[in-house]
Amino acid sequence: xxxxxxxxxxxxxxxxxxxxxxxxxxxxxxxxxxxxxxxxxxxxxxxxxxxxxxxxxxxxxxxxxxxxxxxxxxxxxxxxxxxxxxxxxxxxxxxxxxxxxxxxxxxxxxxxxxxxxxxxxxxxxxxxxxxxxxxxxxxxxxxxxxxxxxxxxxxxxxxxxxxxxxxxxxxxxxxxxxxxxxxxxxxxxxxxxxxxxxxxxxxxxxxxxxxxxxxxxxxxxxxxxxxxxxxxxxxxxxxxxxxxxxxxxxxxxxxxxxxxxxxxxxxxxxxxxxxxxxxxxxxxxxxxxxxxxxxxxxxxxxxxxxxxxxxxxxxxxxxxxxxxxxxxxxxxxxxxxxxxxxxxxxxxxxxxxxxxxxxxxxxxxxxxxxxxxxxxxxxxxxxxxxxxxxxxxxxxxxxxxxxxxxxxxxxxxxxxxxxxxxxxxxxxxxxxxxxxxxxxxxxxxxxxxxxxx
Length: 453
Known about the structure:
By secondary structure, the protein is of the alpha/beta class. It contains eleven helices and 23 strands. The strands form five sheets. Strands 8-7-9-10-6-11-12-13-14 form a nine-stranded mixed beta sheet, with helices on both faces. Strands 17-18-16-15-19-22-23 form a seven-stranded mixed beta sheet. A three-stranded antiparallel beta sheet has the order 2-1-3, with no helix packed on it.
């Protein structure tokens, strides 16, 4: 008789313990440990699972001509490094309603146009519900198979019978295996099902795309080993109240992890944004107002122009407020400290609000100078020329550090129609198409803005 064992597993990080704990020692989350029952079975090795392959020399390994398959969606191909790699396991995660199922159904339709056979495993929707979405997205193909199923063993059987080129699993949290005595979505089930999908992808050279849920903190639900097993991890980001969506690769064994794809959500699905600067600057006023600055930030190999706005006002409270949307709050506090110490701008009794227009998040430090000038110009009620872009990282002593890819940033500014650029002195270049103002210190950048009035 099989011996029954029990363990407690954290649903956030996968930490395992023999008894219940209110707080997970690994990730610090409260109330996330759930009990899972295990059956200690005697392992049996079947002949079909014995690996009979032998090691090969690297120089003798042959790569097929069609290693990558294009999805016909330019922004998705950019993230993947040129297309889907055959035999790879791709994980896409994002908030509910962000568009994960939409983009994968569109991708399935485009792959079928290239005579690829696609199996769409829908574990959360019925076949009729998926058909309604397909009609809205204008997806219809003879090579697209829909299989509403949650049992992993049945899914494996259908994959072996149909032998598709691409399999989409929506989602991994809804799939369960009979070999694990726990409910779907548990740590053990996610680990087991992902492991089976990985073996199918590698052994049969089938590309498998898996949708994953996220926790309230924005992390992928389930054990961290899930991200280690897959070949590519892609996050679907963006404010669902805005029209744009952003794909960001956090891990990619076959491409660059710094690339970003931008889409716009329309009534008939997601559309690629070929010129994102129009999306982020389309609501910008051409009338100069205090507290507004245009910065050029890099997202992968793509420079983006975004507007940063700041509002400074006297606070009625003992402690002034510091609010930042779209930029790191600690970074804003550091810039405010540099403005007080190195420039003499007293903000100790002022509320400061910083916002990145368009809902995009700016992580790059090259936006430091733009944030500082937006705050300084609003505090002094002066304006930055709306035809000026600002690039530079600020050090604690008030110096302006150089940034990378300055030529690509300036070229993007010129193509968008800007006439002037304030850049770090170490990045000083000559460009007849745009006026270059190199600065060494923060006070020099502020002086250049004020003297241009």
